[in-house]
Design brief:
This protein is mainly alpha-helical. The protein is 78% helix and 0% strand. Bound molecules: aspartic acid.
């Protein structure tokens, strides 16, 4: 029998998980006790591989570029694209939330409480990017620190190499080993998707959505509009790629992100998808891990929608300057949001505080955070992939111009 393509397998797993989840709504504990652990095993394997994978693939990427300036130019393009699309995303979120504010339910706000974690500011985020110990970034799975460490060692190797380029095959061999191990784990993703999604559906049966269905709908409208408009236009005009081909090629990663709600977890599949779509390996191995850590367009949309919703429950109407503040803080907050489930909700506290909204309001949306999260993670990783495609295309054009 011919083997089904991985994307079809993941799709079947997704549909089966939804049906099995609905069938198990009245026995959700069964799904949580016996199915979820296999999803956790799968996610653990991904988390295990992602640290060394990013470390060696960035290093191998830097070495293959042979030029520190090229890394700088790619880094600058990537960060500018990430910041602009995130600011755009939050604007879309605020726009739709204001448009549909009249439809939002007004929920009771007395007796709410939400314990915000210590507030995160920009300087703390900056300092925490730099590791103070060689092993700690891997132990804590701190992606930004792993990226900084691999860049430094990659640069050191380049400088040591000098003119008579040394033999760097050891790094490439290590990179190949981890890529192969990742491929093996990715083959298990249909099982992972089923085991991750089924308990979520079983636990959040349709009734739970209740009064928040409209708020979720508005967030999903924002997600879809942002992906369809911004990513389609940017891959079309900056990389000359048909948006349909882009989204088709991204399907396995999209379905995986939707089920796992983790950008970092989706990283290996995202790398495969973008490379198949024609992104350069050395570029995507740098752009994607960075994006999984600092680029969160879906999270920004969610923060915009939830700020307006929470404000309206408290009977507060946000002013225009307050909305601008939200655009700025949510863009910065997205840099500090880790690519793991639920991180965006923690950062919502920072956004609410910036405009004086009560942080306790987060309790209103916390119950269905996972449903918000599945959509926002999907948008997050699609944004990262669009950047890898665009930067690859721009670098190719630049190389041609230099040759000409
Ligand atoms: N789960 C999201 C991600 O991994 C982050 C968030 O919670 O918004 O991209």
């Amino acid at each position: 029998m011919k083997k089904l393509p991985l994307s079809t397998q993941i799709f079947i797993a997704l549909i089966l998980a939804i049906f099995a989840g609905i069938a198990l709504t009245s026995h959700a504990s069964l799904a949580v006790t016996y199915i979820k652990p296999f999803g956790t095993i799968f996610l653990n394997l991904i988390k295990w591989i992602v640290g060394p994978l990013v470390f060696f693939s960035i290093m191998a990427g830097v070495i293959s570029m042979r030029d520190i300036r090229k890394v700088g130019s790619i880094g600058a393009k990537t960060v500018v694209y990430y910041l602009c699309t995130t600011a755009f995303a939050i604007t879309i979120g605020l726009f739709f939330a204001n448009l549909f504010r009249g439809f939002f339910p007004v929920l009771q706000t007395t007796d709410l409480s939400y314990e915000a974690s210590a507030s995160v500011n920009f300087m703390d985020t900056l300092v925490s990017m730099f590791p103070s110990n060689f092993i700690a970034p891997f132990v804590n799975a701190n992606m930004l620190q792993i990226i900084v460490a691999s860049l430094l060692i990659g640069f050191a190797l380049l400088l040591l190499g000098g003119e008579n380029v040394r033999d760097f095959s050891a790094v490439e061999t290590l990179n190949d080993i981890f890529l192969k191990a990742m491929e093996m784990i990715v083959q298990l993703s249909p099982i992972g998707v089923f085991c991750l999604l089924c308990p979520v559906v079983a636990e959040n049966g349709p009734a739970v959505l209740g009064s928040l269905a409209k708020v979720l709908l508005v967030a999903y409208i924002g997600y879809v509009v942002h992906a369809v408009v911004v990513y389609s236009l940017s891959v079309k005009f900056a990389a000359g790629m048909s948006p349909l081909d882009f989204f088709r090629g991204m399907l396995p990663a999209i379905m995986f992100a939707f089920s796992s709600a983790s950008s970092v977890g989706t990283l290996p599949i995202n790398m495969e998808c973008t490379e198949k779509l024609g992104a350069d390996k050395d570029i995507s191995s740098f752009v994607l891990p960075l994006g999984a850590t600092i680029n969160m367009d879906g999270t920004a949309i969610y923060q915009g929608v939830c700020s307006i919703f929470i404000a309206s429950c408290y009977g507060i109407t946000l002013t225009f300057p307050q909305m601008i503040t939200i655009v700025l803080t949510a863009t910065l907050a997205s840099i500090g949001t880790a690519g793991v489930p639920g991180a965006g909700m923690v950062m919502l506290a920072m956004v609410l505080q910036s405009v004086g909204l009560p942080v306790d309001g987060i309790a209103l949306v916390a119950g269905v955070d996972r449903i918000f999260d599945m959509g926002r993670t999907t948008v997050n990783i699609t944004g990262d992939a669009s950047c890898a495609i665009i930067v690859s295309a721009l670098e190719r054009k630049k190389a041609q111009r230099v040759k000409a």
